[in-house]
Specification:
This protein is an alpha/beta fold. Helix content is 49%, strand content 10%. It has 27 helices and 16 strands. The strands form four sheets. Strands 6-5-4-7-8-9 form a six-stranded parallel sheet. Strands 13-12-11-14-15-16 form a six-stranded parallel sheet, sandwiched between helices. It starts with 7 loop residues before the first helix and ends with a helix. It binds FE(4)-NI(1)-S(5) cluster.
C-alpha cells in the first residue's frame, strides 16, 4: 500500500508516476502526493472564510451572522481573499512579461550576449498594432521602440494599457462602460492590495470589479507581452515533433532539467547544450553528452520551439529527481516546490536557483543575467557535468510518448488557409455547419488532491467524442501529451465524426497544444480572430466555447480564469472552490460564489464556476456550447450528419469493386 491514504492508481493516472511513487515508498521518501494525504486542508480557509489581513484576527467566520473584529462580513472577506489571489497571479505573469520586455530592450541595443531577434515578421506585426513605424527601419530600431512601449505599460498611471486594443471592439466598449479598463499593469495590482488592507473596500461587488481589472492587466497586458516578446526573440511556434514523460531521461547522458517559467535562460541552455565545447566537456566526464528536458511551463516554452522533450508537468518535479538520474534541476520562477532541495539530498542532484527573485535554502545559486546569458548557461551545464561522476543507482521509468505541439494562432491561421489565404474562415464554417460543435480550452495545473492528469485527460477525451475541438496549454497540455492525445492523426478514431473530418482535411490533431500558461493569451487572440472572421457573433461571449482548468491549484490559474470571464468566456474550475463558503451553516456565505457566476455573467457575458465532478463539467460544457449555438441561430449539433466525407468516404469507396466505385464517384 502506498504511503499516504490513497493507492498509487488513485494518486495518478500516469504509469510513469505510479512507478516512481512505488520507488519513493521503497526509499521511504515523501512527495507532494503523500504530503497531500497527510495534510488535511483547513475547511474554513478553504472556503474563503478566514481573514488574516490584520493583527486583530485571524477571524474565522463559522457562525451565522458572525463578523470579523472590524465588522467585516463573510462576503467582504471572501472577495478580499479572492482578489488577493488574482493580484498575486497577475503579478507573477506580468513580472515575467516585464523581464521579457527588458530582455527585448537589451537585445535591441546589442547588450544581450547570445540572443537575436528570431521572428522579425512577428516583431513588425506586433509593432504595427501600436502604430510603431516599421518601414525602412532595422529590426533593432523597431524592437527598441516596442520594448520601450511595453516597459511603459507596467508603470503607466493613467489611460489604458495598449494590448487591450487587440480585443474585439465591442468588448473594449463593454470594459469602458463597466469601468474595468486597466490603466497600468502594476497600478492595478497595487490597488488590489490597497483595497484589501484593513478598513478599505467593503462591498464584494466593488472588490470583485477590481479583480476583473487586475486580471485584465494580466491577460491583455503582462501575459500578452510575455507571449509576444518570447515569439519575437525565440520564434513563433509551429508544429514540431516532441516527446513527453520521465522516459525521456537518459542513463548514459548528463541529464539537466529546466523547470519554472521564463524562456530566457532555458533557451540559452538549449543553445549551450549543443555547443561543441560542452559536448566535449561531457564526453571527457564519461557521458555521451548533455540531455536536456523540461518541467512545467519552461518545458512548454522549449518544447514548442525546439522540440526539447518534456520530462513532465507540475507533479513530476519530485518524481524526476527520484530517478537518481538528474545531475541538475535548474529553476527560475513559479511552481517550484521547496521540497526539491530536501528530496535531492537523497541523491546527487543539484538544485540550481537562477532568478534574483527566487532562492531556496540549501540550493546552489547561479544568478542569471541576460547580458551574459551564454556564459552563465555554460557555467550551469559544466556544474551539472561535473556532478555526473557522483551519480548512484538510477531508476528511469521507460514511459514516454510522442506529440506534436506548436499551434500558435499564427500557425492555426496559416494551416487553415495557406500563406496567401491564411484565415479562420474554415474553422468558423466548420462550427457554423456543426462539424465542430464548439471549442474547449483545457488548461492549468496539476493538483495532488486530485488524481494526477485524470481530470484533464478524461474531460478531453469525452469532449472529443462530442465533436468539440480542444486547445490546451500549461500542465494540462503535458498531461494530454503523456496520455498520447497530441499525436497528430493517430487518435482520430476516438473523435466525433464531424471533428474527425475537419482534422483529416486540414491535417491537424484534434487537440492543439498552444503553449505555456502565459500563452493563454494566444487563446484570447484566436477567439478575437474568430469574432472578426464573422458568422459567430460580434463578441467573444457569443462563441460556442468554454475554458476549463480541471486540476487547478495556483493563484495564476485564478487570474487566468478571471480575465477569461472578463473576456466573455464560461470558465469551469475543477477541484474545490476558494470561495465555496458553507451555505448549510453560514447564511450569505455563497454570495461571492454566486456573484462570480450570475453576477459576472450579467456584466461580462462570461462566468466562473467550480465543479468537482468531471461528468458534470462535461455536461455543463456541452450545454453551454449548445445554448450559444442556438443563440446564434446555428443548426443543433447532430452527430449523424457528418463523417461520410474525407478519409472515411475514401475507405468506403476503396472497399467497393471497381465498377461500383466508378459508379459511386461519377454517377
Ligand atoms: Ni500554469 Fe505553468 Fe503548471 Fe499550473 Fe504551474 S506550471 S503557469 S501554474 S502548475 S499550469
Amino acid at each position: 500500500m502506498a504511503k499516504g491514504k490513497r493507492s498509487y492508481e488513485e494518486k495518478t493516472a500516469d504509469p510513469a508516476a505510479q512507478e516512481m511513487l512505488i520507488r519513493a515508498d521503497e526509499l521511504g521518501i515523501g512527495t507532494a502526493f503523500s504530503r497531500a494525504d497527510d495534510m488535511v486542508p483547513c475547511n474554513i480557509g478553504g472556503a474563503g472564510m478566514c481573514c488574516k489581513l490584520c493583527g486583530m484576527g485571524p477571524c474565522r467566520l463559522t457562525k451565522d451572522g458572525q463578523t470579523g473584529v472590524c465588522g467585516a462580513t463573510i462576503d467582504t472577506i471572501q472577495a478580499r481573499n479572492f482578489i488577493r489571489a488574482v493580484a498575486a497571479g497577475s503579478a507573477a505573469h506580468s513580472d515575467h512579461g516585464r523581464d521579457m520586455a527588458f530582455t527585448l530592450k537589451a537585445v535591441a541595443n546589442g547588450e544581450a550576449e547570445g540572443y537575436v531577434i528570431r521572428d522579425v515578421a512577428k516583431l513588425r506585426t506586433v509593432a504595427s498594432y501600436y502604430g510603431i513605424p516599421v518601414e525602412k527601419r532595422s529590426p533593432q530600431e523597431i524592437a527598441n521602440d516596442l520594448a520601450d512601449l511595453y516597459i511603459a505599460q507596467f508603470g503607466q498611471q493613467r489611460g489604458e494599457i495598449v494590448p487591450l486594443r487587440r480585443a474585439p471592439k465591442k468588448r473594449q466598449e463593454l470594459w469602458k462602460q463597466t469601468g474595468v479598463v486597466p490603466r497600468g499593469i502594476d497600478r492595478e495590482v497595487v490597488e488590489a492590495l490597497h483595497r484589501t488592507h484593513i478598513g478599505d473596500d467593503q462591498d464584494h461587488r466593488h472588490i470583485l470589479q477590481h479583480a476583473i481589472r487586475t486580471a485584465l492587466a494580466d491577460g491583455w497586458g503582462g501575459s500578452m507581452i510575455a507571449t509576444d516578446v518570447s515569439d519575437i526573440l525565440f520564434g513563433t511556434p509551429a508544429p514540431i515533433l516532441g516527446m513527453a514523460n520521465l522516459g525521456v531521461l537518459k542513463d548514459d547522458m548528463v541529464n539537466v532539467i529546466v523547470h519554472g517559467h521564463e524562456p530566457t535562460l532555458s533557451q540559452m541552455i538549449v543553445a549551450a547544450s549543443q555547443d561543441p565545447e560542452i559536448i566535449e566537456y561531457a564526453r571527457a566526464a564519461g557521458a555521451q553528452g548533455v540531455n536536456l528536458s523540461g518541467i512545467c511551463c519552461t518545458a512548454n516554452e522549449i518544447l514548442l520551439r525546439q522540440g526539447i522533450p518534456a520530462a513532465g508537468n507540475f507533479l513530476h518535479q519530485e518524481l524526476a529527481i527520484l530517478t537518481g538520474a538528474v545531475e541538475a534541476m535548474v529553476v527560475d520562477v513559479q511552481c517550484i516546490m521547496q521540497a526539491l532541495v530536501d528530496l535531492s539530498s537523497n541523491f546527487h542532484t543539484h538544485i540550481i536557483t537562477t532568478s534574483p527573485k527566487v532562492r531556496i535554502k540549501g540550493a546552489l545559486h547561479i544568478e542569471f543575467d541576460e547580458h551574459k546569458a551564454l556564459t552563465i548557461a555554460k557555467q550551469i551545464l559544466k556544474t551539472a557535468i561535473d556532478n555526473y561522476k557522483n551519480r548512484g543507482k538510477t531508476h528511469i521509468p521507460q514511459v514516454r510518448e510522442n506529440l506534436i505541439p506548436g499551434f500558435s494562432h499564427e500557425y492555426i491561421n496559416y494551416m487553415l488557409g495557406g500563406t496567401y489565404r491564411a484565415s479562420f474562415r474554415p474553422l468558423n464554417d466548420a462550427i457554423m455547419a456543426g462539424r465542430i460543435r464548439g471549442v474547449a480550452a483545457i488548461v492549468g495545473c496539476n493538483n495532488p488532491r486530485s488524481k494526477q492528469d485524470y481530470l484533464h485527460t478524461y474531460v478531453t477525451q469525452e469532449l472529443l467524442k462530442q465533436d468539440v475541438l480542444i486547445v490546451e496549454t500549461g500542465c494540462g497540455a503535458i498531461a494530454a501529451a503523456k496520455q498520447g492525445l497530441l499525436l497528430g492523426e493517430a487518435g482520430l478514431d476516438k473523435v466525433g465524426p464531424g471533428l474527425r473530418e475537419v482534422c483529416e482535411t486540414v491535417g491537424i490533431p484534434p487537440v492543439l497544444h498552444m503553449g505555456s500558461c502565459v500563452d493563454n493569451t494566444r487563446i484570447l487572440t484566436v477567439l478575437t480572430q474568430m469574432v472578426e472572421e464573422g458568422g459567430l457573433g460580434d463578441d467573444i461571449d457569443q462563441i460556442p466555447a468554454v475554458g476549463l482548468a480541471p486540476e487547478w491549484m495556483s493563484e495564476k490559474a485564478l487570474s487566468i480564469g478571471t480575465y477569461c470571464v472578463a473576456s466573455g468566456a464560461y470558465v469551469i474550475f475543477g477541484g474545490s472552490s476558494p470561495v465555496s463558503g458553507m451555505p448549510d451553516r453560514v447564511a450569505d456565505s455563497d454570495l461571492v460564489l454566486n456573484y462570480l457566476s450570475q453576477g459576472w455573467e450579467e456584466l461580462y457575458g462570461g462566468k466562473m464556476e467550480f465543479i468537482a465532478d468531471p461528468d458534470e463539467m462535461i455536461r455543463r460544457t456541452l450545454a453551454h456550447i449548445d445554448a450559444k449555438r442556438a443563440a446564434l441561430g446555428l443548426p443543433a449539433w447532430d452527430p449523424q450528419r457528418f463523417g461520410r466525407s474525407g478519409d472515411a468516404r475514401m475507405l468506403e469507396l476503396e472497399a467497393l469493386p471497381v465498377a461500383q466505385r466508378r459508379a459511386a464517384i461519377y454517377g
